């Protein structure tokens, strides 16, 4: 099979012919039909995660995967209802099944977890083995290139906004800011409407084309942050919605200057949910954080149930997509575009 693999840090991926993987008895062999390209893949290549975990090579990136069941292991439970030819999506965070996070369903934060796309097998190849409990069957009529991005870009902000909702931070009298309208943010504005309970949704980004997508996908107001101070933004906010503060923020970017601005704009008892990883530090003043009783939510990827909910929304036709289909041969040039933030929506490899 064809695979685009990483053999060392800081080098382009190598397209090569490798053997189709074997499966264990509790696994399913998935034939990849679409794989989304994530900025995380660039960070993986650039060694962003090295201080937390070292990679071993060769590594096949690609953690946003939709595919077809090609072969089913002998110990896969019959009750799963899986059959060869079924369309499936992958839940990305695979836990070890022993810890309390796994037991409560949050396998994506297991301390001994594994992730497709961060080891030998990933979506940048034609096949990969998957433990059957991390597959969700999806209607065959849904398009693979729209399903694949939903397993991370369309899942991560969903969980992040659920945290705001479950904390009571959203409702008709609240203003919800969506920071960064890249791959994740284009979904976040839609979930802001679906889960916001009537909150006013304001999208913030630098790029006018990305802001136009946010407006199209349901943001009540869009605000460009390019070359603007917090005071400028506060004024615009006031004009747009009658208050110069945000009651909640879903941050799909994670750029240090945006985080600082976000906390300057946060209202008393405001909630900040962080899912984007553009920067690698948070530096905010402590006194307002304490005195104004801010709540900060780290939110990582999503679990099986989060993805099931996203798939239900997709099946109901409630999610819109901005997809740029590409071929596996175009993977390296698109990694470069991701690095500079020059992809509108999601680049998705079609097989
Ligand atoms: Zn675990």
Automatic annotation (TrEMBL):
Keyword Oxidoreductase: yes
Keywords: Metal-binding, Oxidoreductase, Zinc
GO molecular function: alcohol dehydrogenase (NAD+) activity; zinc ion binding
Enzyme class: oxidoreductase
Superkingdom to which the source organism belongs: Bacteria
Gene3D superfamilies registered for this protein in UniProt: Medium-chain alcohol dehydrogenases, catalytic domain (3.90.180.10), NAD(P)-binding Rossmann-like Domain (3.40.50.720)
UniProt cross-references to SMART domains, sorted A to Z: PKS_ER
All residue ranges annotated as the Enoyl reductase (ER) domain in the record: 11-349
Required co-factors: Zn(2+)
Enzyme Commission number: 1.1.1.1
PROSITE patterns xrefs: ADH_ZINC (PS00059)
Protein family according to the UniProt entry: Belongs to the zinc-containing alcohol dehydrogenase family.
Protein name: alcohol dehydrogenase
Phylogenetic placement of the source organism: Bacteria, Pseudomonadati, Verrucomicrobiota, Verrucomicrobiia, Verrucomicrobiales
